[in-house]
Amino acid sequence: MAGQDLYQVVSTGRTLHAKEAGAVTRDIAKLFSVPEAQARRLLLKGWVIKDSLASSQALEYRAKLHKIGLRAEVCPTGKFDNQQLIAKIKVAQRRKANAAEKMPTSTASAGASKAGTAREQEVEKPLSVSNAKGSVAPPLDSEKVKPQATEPEANEKRAFFSNRKTQLATVGWRVLFGLLPALTVPTIFIGLAALCLYGAGALLWQTPLAVWQGELTGGTLLISLGGAAVFIFLLLLVALPYFCFPREMRPRPGEVPLKQADNKDLLPLLEQLSSATKLPRVQELIVSPDARIYCEPRFSEVMRQQLRLNLGLASVASLSGRDTLALVARSLGLYQGKLNGLLAWLVLDGVRRLELMQWALENDRSVLYRSGEPGPLKSLHQLLATCGHFLLPLIERLENLHRIVTRGSARYLECRADFWAADLIGSGAFAEFAGNWHRLVHADLMVAETAREASAVGQCFENIPAAVAWTLNNLDEETSNTIELAMAQASDPWDVFEAADLQRIEVVQKRNISGRLQRELGCTELFADFPKLASEVSGEAGASDCQVVENRRLLCASREAEEALQILDVYFNRLPPLNLLPLRRPATQEMQAMDLQASINWLRSKLIELRELREQRENTRQLMVSVQLGAALIRAKVRIEPQEYSLNSASLAAAQEASALKRSELEEIERQLQKIYSVFYQRLCLALVAMPARERQQARGMLSQLAAYDALATHLERLAGYSTSLSVFSRRLSPGLAERELVQKYLALSARELDATFATVESSELLKAQGLDSALCIKAKREPLQQLPQRHQEALAVVRTMESRCNYASTVILERYQIQLAALLQRCLHREGQLEVNPLRLLQAV
Known about the structure:
The protein is mainly alpha-helical. It has four domains: 3-158, no CATH class; 183-248; 249-538, no CATH class; 556-835, no CATH class.
């Protein structure tokens, strides 16, 4: 339902049939079961009574209000806003209260004033407020009227976190005993700096002292200045780098502050998290394309309990909202409380400073020139950099000393951070959270390694968060088993990025902490445009001389597939088919009459339209699946948040209407795509006809192999739909499994579609000859359908397993198809070159 087709019902401030306002107010209060003070709001001119209604619903709503005696009008949605009226009412109440305070009052008048204030407070309570407009929405069903919720109750329903008291407490004696060992290494550097300053000052003082005593000689001046220079050199070489090397000195590509335009609801959610848990507040958000979520606060930020949070967008794209918030809570929980935050700052920042010193000395940096640029003191800088290499063993020993004396505190902080994550999601969900965390770290490392290899040849990812999400969803069984073995290894307590090991999981589960997260949420929806932001941040992470390429080109599993994608990019001008190429020529005789050059020229004129249609197709398909799931849940009488399923209301009729609308939009987009790609097929046929006889015969054989994949086109489309549906279920599966029957239905449909895909492949000799059946067995595997378990985490694992199987099957089929298609298109491109036709590619601006 389009936004411009929605309306709001607004009070005109007048009554019908010459009815008195008091009588209308009493009728409203009786009908809607609300106090008269709240019903009086509906008599305000410009008050939005109901918002976001279809035209028929708005007219019906207005007619029912007219029966009561209240005159209302229908306006386009967004024209009026109750927040302005509420602000005016509050200002008037404050003005009236101030005036009452200035007037002399007796005991009787004071009692009247209290009664008046109570009435004003009662009037100030609004009716239930709809989504974002602040409009009153009383029910209209006169047969069954439910009382409206008060504002605190409505806010509690909208809250994501319960305000229960935290089960975590700082152990004061444990923190105090940990502070002294944590000060060991900083004390060494402070003492060294003080010694150098004292030595340099004492030696420099010898010169004016000798002048005063009349004993100044050349030797005295030389010893004074030379000794002071040595002490200052030691200060610059050893002591100052520990304190003066900024954390920005080490390059972190892709880290940028989150702009206000990119933020939608993320900062308010984090504010709500801090208010509910008493965690430090997030004063600034830094986003990066990787999967790391962490805090590196300064001392002043720890004392203020206001931190900068580094949020890895790959975590947002790959994990559920629950797991992402658990990582956020864990990062903030390290510095919760001033005393505990001071200990965490000393323990973790000490290791960070020593590692930064080691990196800087290895990369010829010094306190004079932190970026290595030349200058007037270039010789001294080179001397400091050269001598710094001899200090590396000393820095390593100091780091080992710091780890030895702070090991207990580091374990305490690590355990406490895990408890904060469990405080959000619960101890029962911590094991699954740790497993997802391990897989995310592994996928992030794989993508980072691929990105380094790609940068060596001048390429970079188009969207790093999407690449990490794809890698995480496509981990094979062998890799998953390896990750499970890695969970048994003890983690490094000073590394905040390491996932929880089995021992840490066991400790958290023994605490039996109940989670405070009340409902699921999708973190990508908290950004204004998450895909755009992820692409922009990924572009910042890549080198300026690197070419941005699609993720699929860098994530290919084989060299053949990568070479095939390069050929497809040339033939389709980087716009290959999203599924299978339709092997049929255009429907109209006019287009069928075009020759090879005319077909290519026509395609060149449609490239921009083709790009837009591809984007619209993906967006519409995602929306259609979401709307269909929402309609199915409503039909199954499962309570949902309409906005989470791209719906305007929880009405079944509205959901079915929206589903039909999206389906018709998708069909129209598919029809236009088929029309353009049919000309690509005509181009292929014309090039094939122009080939020599022997080569043409070979090309026809390759074309018949491609035609064998047509039987899989419907299966691929359904598998993609089921995969998307299961992905939505995995993100929003309710703890009580209220949608059990519907999820089990989709699992059965997915399993049936996989079996049908296997059967289609096995019945085709051409597909079996290409090895597609064996590849499918290795990746997707044929397994019996499992019943959805009773426990939430086990059910979630079954849903995700089925989603992965659907993804694997689609990926294997499309990869084999693209290899076969590229082999044929390469011959066509070669023939087009021999015929000297103008190519499809657009001219690039120099």
